[in-house]
Design brief:
The structure holds 2 protein chains of 2 kinds. By secondary structure, chain A is α/β, with parallel strands linked by helices. Helices cover 52% and strands 12% of the residues of chain A. Chain A has a single domain, classed as Rossmann fold, CATH 3.40.50.1110. Chain B is built from 16 helices and no strands. Classes of the chains: A alpha/beta, B mainly alpha.
Chain lengths: 247, 385
């Protein structure tokens, strides 16, 4: 029985074998230009670059920031951001401090905001959040309150902020209110004069262009894989440079 | 209370064969862009080679040490287990060394300082003294060096479970499941380096695979009581595997993705690997059940010469695992050098597997020469997990 099954097994495998493996090449890494507009001119960062030739960034977030499951921590978006900015801003001392802690939610990050910024005085905070809240269905009012608390506190310490919203992955797409969390983040960014990096829309664009999830998501259906992280890092770098060089 | 009469004599060659296969899969899957990984289990379901490796490790641990304990006492058996733990530890540290050295060598030889920068980002360059201390404590495990530390922790606890699992295998399964459930619920894990990180393979959760493996080894033929439900169980397993295959393939084909109902997606995602999601574990159990039914230990084709290299790799699992992890990094560098060409993917995969097989044959040859003088009993030496 098993012996006769072999030809079948081979046939099925051959049928399933796609034309090629998932490439790591960044030629697939794209986004519509309007999605790379943070909507903020990052004044504190500009000032630090102009006066001190220095740009200090804190990447505050959960598992995407800490680089869960990537095959090399250098692929996590904060490391990619550092490499990209180093290349684009010669002569400027760029530092990206990774403060991603897997599993954390908006309230834990808002709570450590002050300590993080005291320990590493930065001109720019990239705050990645929303995903864990959406998949755990944190009440919207609570999410909004903590997000605003964190932003108010952070802004009062004088740094620019960029909010990075949810990732477009099966676990988030299945969450019922994901758009509501997105809206709350967009409104809070506007109100507190923070930039918004629209990761959700960017990644949705990948999917709608026919890119399979396996190209940019780990097999757990939640975390970005090597390609996803590198591409987000690259697009975030481009957005931040657009803001710094814009009017 | 009767102690189970452990393990009929004669080696179950399925263990070596499937462990060898798992080692090949781990190598092939560790090359990030690799068309050959379409021949491995992970693209057709939730579980991957890690489950196979950990389960068989638990199973063989009982085979290797249970009889020793019954004949020579617990102390001797525990000492033997810890000698093995020490070997695993030494292998892990050596692999860490070799792995790091390979990255440094490539970046110097090819004049690619970016690779060294990447090392720095792993946490090695920033504070090398701390990193080396953390590596010695198994807290710092860059890239793919996560599996051996898991195995070390699981095996280090094994002597304390061994007497219990021989008497009360079902109780051990129950305790193991309870610990697994509590770990998932309370989000327990062990600390890792750099600060704030946790173990990628959480030993408190993954122990469930290992100890269910030990209990299966103890139950052995007794598990035949399940045969009363043979066909219903087979049907369930097949249905579940089809479901898992559908979901796994939907990650590659958006058309299938669209067909997944939202309520279902809400139930299954995320499919956690750190705490081995229950979907993954069930998937492995379904595979294991079908293998048990379809491939009995005395199946003729298991002894075909074609499978001989697989069995040899499975027998030398520690060596082959280390070589595979090391070569996966080399393969990754080669594939990226050739701009991810399909041919380079296939060539490095085949070449890597050939090197692993050659190493397994050489190691077997060494062992067959060495054991004659050392006075070790071949049966135990051979069955070491």
């Amino acid at each position: 029985m098993t012996l006769r099954a072999w030809p079948w097994l081979v046939a099925v495998l051959a049928l399933l074998l796609p034309a090629s493996a998932l490439p790591q090449s960044m030629t697939l890494c794209r986004a519509k230009p309007e999605l790379l507009d943070l909507g903020n001119s990052l004044p504190a960062s500009r000032k630090a670059i102009a006066e001190r030739k220095q740009l200090r960034i804190i990447a505050l977030g959960s598992s995407s920031t800490s680089g869960y499951g990537v095959s090399n921590p250098a692929y996590a978006y904060p490391a990619q951001l550092k490499m990209g900015l180093d290349k684009a801003l010669p002569g400027i001392d760029v530092d990206v401090i990774n403060r991603g802690i897997g599993g954390q939610d908006v309230e834990e990050m808002a709570a450590r905001m002050q300590a993080e910024m005291k320990e590493n005085p930065a001109s720019l905070v990239v705050w990645q959040t929303g995903t864990n809240a959406a998949i755990r269905q944190m009440p919207l009012a609570k999410f909004e309150r903590w997000l605003r608390n964190g932003l108010a506190l952070g802004k009062s310490l004088g740094a620019d902020f960029v909010l990075m919203n949810l990732q477009y992955v099966p676990a988030v797409v299945a969450a019922p209110d994901k758009e509501a969390y997105e809206k709350i983040m967009a409104a809070a960014a506007k109100e507190y004069d923070a930039g918004l990096f629209r990761r959700f829309d960017i990644m949705r664009g990948w999917y709608q262009d026919g890119m399979p999830y396996a190209q940019f998501v780990q097999l757990d259906g939640l975390h970005l894989n090597d390609f996803g992280q590198k591409c987000i890092g690259k697009l975030l770098t481009r957005s931040i440079l657009n803001s710094l060089n814009g009017p | 209370m009767a102690v189970h009469p452990v393990i009929a004599s004669g080696r179950d060659i399925r263990l070596d064969l499937f462990r060898g296969l798992a080692l090949w899969f781990i190598f092939v899957d560790h090359i990030p862009t690799n068309v050959v990984s379409w021949f491995t289990v992970r693209n057709y379901g939730f579980s991957d080679a890690t489950e196979i490796f950990v389960f068989i490790s638990g199973y063989t641990a009982v085979i290797a040490y249970a009889r020793m304990m019954q004949r020579e006492g617990w102390v001797r058996a525990a000492a033997r287990v810890y000698r093995r733990v020490w070997q695993l530890y030494v292998a892990h540290i050596l692999l860490f060394m070799a792995f790091t050295a390979q990255i440094i060598w490539v970046s110097i030889a090819r004049d690619m300082p970016s690779l060294i920068d990447e090392m720095e980002l792993m946490g090695l360059g920033e504070n090398p003294y701390r990193a080396i201390l953390a590596a010695a404590l198994l807290q710092f495990r860059p890239v793919n060096l996560d599996v051996l530390p898991l195995y070390i922790v699981l095996l280090a606890a094994f002597p304390f479970v061994l007497p219990a699992v021989l008497r009360w295998p079902f109780a051990v399964i129950a305790v193991s499941l309870a610990l697994y459930a509590a770990t998932c619920h309370f989000d327990w894990n062990l600390p890792a380096y750099p600060a704030g990180k946790v173990w990628y393979f959480n030993p408190l959760a993954w122990q469930v695979v290992f100890y269910v493996g030990t209990a299966c080894a103890v139950l052995g033929p007794e598990i035949a009581w399940l045969d009363r439900y043979r066909w219903p169980l087979c049907l369930l397993a097949v249905l579940y595997l089809c479901f898992a295959a559908f979901i796994a393939l939907s990650w590659h084909y958006n058309a299938l993705q669209e067909m997944t109902p939202a309520w279902l997606a809400r139930q299954i995602y995320p499919i956690d690997k750190t705490n081995i999601d229950i979907l993954r574990f069930l998937h492995f159990l379904a595979v294991a059940w079908l293998v048990r039914v379809l491939v009995p230990a005395d199946t003729a084709f298991l002894r075909w010469p074609v499978f001989h290299p697989l069995r040899r790799c499975g027998e030398q699992s520690l060596l082959i695992f280390c070589i595979g992890t090391f070569l996966a990094l080399s393969a990754q560098i080669v594939v990226s050098y050739f701009e991810e060409s399909l041919l380079s993917q296939i060539v490095v995969s085949v070449a890597g597997i050939l090197v692993m097989c050659a190493a397994a044959y050489v190691a077997t040859w060494f062992k067959s020469g060495g054991s004659a003088g050392s006075g070790r009993t071949p049966s135990t030496a051979e069955a070491v997990p």
